[in-house]
Amino acid sequence: MASSEPKPFAPKNPVQLDPPKDDPISVENLAKCDAIKGTVFDVSGNSAYGPNGSYHVFAGRDASRALAQSSLKAEDCRPEWEDLPDKEKKVLEDWFTFFSKRYNIVGKVAA
Q1: Which end of the chain has a smaller Cβ tally under 10 Å, C or N?
Q2: Full-model pTM
Q3: How far, in Å, are 5, 82, 109 from residue 35 at the CA level?
């Protein structure tokens, strides 16, 4: 018997995603993407990440710390997250799952 409950973080409308890529992407080339824990997601199709969008602060950078802390402050949009408390790491993992069900993974932030 199939469950009628939605899966956690599943989009309302199914999204057809490409296979994940692990191409290195420099920070300078992240403009239309958002990165979480070094994984780069293509958010270019969502206007919320555009220049006037409510999440524009996340675009073009690894915003791991800000997402973990539920912050929209530009100074919190940085890749360091390992020192955060477990509760915030769980929030970050939830965001990673959310993004991975909606946006194509196009690479990894180049070191």
Answers
A1: N
A2: 0.84
A3: 29, 15, 7
